[in-house]
Amino acid sequence: MALSAPSWRLPIRCAQTPIAQYQRRTAASSSNNDGSSSGSNPVLEEYLRNNPQEAQSGRIKIPEGMGQAGDIANSSIFEDERRAQKQTDSESKDGVDGDSVRVGGIARDPRAMATVLDPNPSAREQWEKRQVVKMIRKNGRLTKEQFIKRTEREHLAKSHNMKTSVKKLGMLARQIAGKTIDDAIVQMRFSKKKVAQEVLKQLEAARDEAVVMRGMGLGNGARKEAEDFNESSSSVTGTTSQTLEETASLERKPHTVDIQLKSGQRHTVSDRSKIYIDQAWVGRGPYGKLPDYRARGRIYMMRTPWTSLSVVLKEEATRVREWEQREAKRQRQLKAKAWKMLPDKPIQIQRQWYSW
Q1: Which range among 90-104, 109-123, 195-209 shows the weakest confidence by mean pLDDT?
Q2: Gene3D superfamilies of this UniProt entry (predicted)?
Q3: What pLDDT, on the 0 to 100 scale, is given for residue 316?
């Protein structure tokens, strides 16, 4: 049986390039029912506005849908300022309140933001009232804890959970407690413990956070430059900072001080802004599960511990102050226990063996 021509000679389609396929898909997705394209090319539109002659002649022809393919999506983080401004203008035309606040170029409603920023206004007002009453009763005087918090710097850093036990990590915590941050890093660098490398990374991260976030360990020269800059800025704004004056008074003292620690060891402080580890403790974390394959097809589940390390970093100025307070207390105790000669009293009646 002979085959007819249309049945055995089928039309062969030419393979389309990926660019052509992309153009067809983009044109199909961006075209409306009436055949008009919804995509826009901002670069082409600006060029046509600047060159109206070429726009009227119609010599520039862009394939349908190509403008949308090279454009940025509305939800992209790289959206240009022109689109953001256009969006804000459209929102303002839609009837946004005149008391709106612009955050990142976008108009925000303060009442809508208050639900997140100030969820309980009455509680906040009561707290402010209590603080004002407390300040008036104390006549603006600061407590000892508040004075220390304002004049001395400290930083608390907590590490992630490490795969070790409390006993093993507790030895390293006791080893680095009381040492300067540089000495503790050296101890962990040459330690044979496996978890010491993790502790080393956490100490370096805590040191960097203390320098960046708290301004600790900057030295006398850098601290003085920062204080001069803050004083100049405060003089412009008309405000004074008690912290800067007290810190400057501490640095005017002798730089080298020989103190005695709580453990009885002698320690020499040459830089009051040097960072040391005041406290170091461990915290028990969750337990993991690890299979233990035994004989006869038995499997036991082992509990692998996870432990975290927390350190409190302070400056040498704090250690010097504590030593001065201990010395002052010891001097007061010695003065109270010292023997004093009794006052002289006149002799009233004389007897052969005794008198009173």
Answers
A1: 90-104
A2: Ribosomal protein L22/L17
A3: 95
Distance, CA of 148 to CA of 318 (rounded, Å): 9
Residue 4 CA to residue 21 CA, distance in Å, equals 33
Name 218's Cβ contacts closer than 8 Å, sequence gap at least 6. Answer: 211, 226, 273
Give the CA dihedral 20, 24, 30, 35, nearest 10 degrees: 130
Residue 71's SS3 state is coil
**Is the pTM above the cut of 0.85?**
no
In a domain, 204, yes or no: yes
Q: Which whole-number Å values give the CA distances from 16 to 13, 23, 219, 225, in the listed order?
A: 9, 11, 69, 68
Number of neighbouring beta carbons within 10 Å of residue 90: 10
CATH number of the domain encompassing residue 308: 3.90.470.10
Please report, for residues 35, 46, 50, 97, the alpha-carbon distance to residue 64 in angstroms, rounded to integers and kept in the order given: 10, 18, 22, 40
Strand, helix or coil for residue 118: coil
If one counts every other C-beta atom within 10 angstroms of the C-beta of residue 44, the result is: 15
Size of the chain in residues: 356
Q: Is 344 inside any structural domain?
A: no
Is 263 within the bounds of a domain? Answer: yes
DSSP label at residue 297: G
Average pLDDT value over all residues in the chain: 78
Name the residue with higher pLDDT: 288 or 255.
Answer: 288
- Find the domain containing 295 and state its range: 144-337
Q: pLDDT tens, 295-353?
A: 999 999 999 999 999 999 999 999 999 999 999 999 999 999 888 877 887 777 777 77
* DSSP letter string, 134-191: HHHHTTTPPPHHHHHHHHS-EEEEEPPPBSS-HHHHHHHHHHHTTSBHHHHHHHHHT-
- 61: CB partners within 8 A, 6+ apart: none
| pLDDT tens-digit map of 274-304 | 999 999 999 999 999 999 999 999 999 999 9
